[in-house]
Amino acid sequence: MDRKTIFVTGAASGLGREVSRYFAEQGYFVGLTDMDMAGLAETASLIGDGKCSQHELNVTDRAQWKEVVAEFSELTGGRMDVFFNNAGIGAGGPIQDMNDEDIDTLIAVNITGVISGIRACFDMLKATPDSCVLNTASAAGIYGAAGLSVYSATKFAVRGLTEAHDIEFQEHDIKSRSLMPGFIDTNILSNVNEQSNMTGKELLQSVGQEVSPVAIIGPAAWDAVHGNIVHTTVNKTAKQLAFAARWFPGRLRKQMHGLTGGIEKSLG
To answer: Is 50 exceeded by the pLDDT of residue 194?
Structure first.
């Protein structure tokens, strides 16, 4: 394949859809994957015929990973310039109120699924000069988010994985990068909280949290893939959080305490 390629998990909506659309506009052939095939079809319709492929993928299924990556390899002649390791789920609540199934699912998708994806795509990335793994982390991976402790822990894990692979993969000419967005206006914030009768977006805004339009994620992903910065913070809130976590952790801790209720309810 003459065109560059990007393989995207969680492409049926949100960040995955927007990054897929943006890279397709830049001339990339896009491998779209998700469990939501109807959503994938919608994403594909935004990109256009001949510019993408669609694959059903449950990131917790290692055998399916191998099958889907093999399908993509046949279409691209073994070329994978970018692997956008994006699929993830958000769930909140105090850890004592979460059930075992929710915790296991969070870890299986947000950590194990990310690792399985890197392992499944490694050979294609290694065979493609100047390739890149782009993991979706989160501002919750900058400083622990009370009320989202398990989710936050999974994103710290993604951050550590990215940093380790940035060093480990240099000999294979593979870059390792992460996106660390604050709150982005996607489907995850559209659910209505029963107690407040407000959407997650409205709850966050009511406690002074910035919710950025999803359109900012495409250029941020592009810059991350083509730049030299390991972690790309996305939106003003994430940038301020990274600065405060480094230089004013005590002050940040007090601020985060005051925001716990709104953040927890927005994803609960």
So the answer is: no
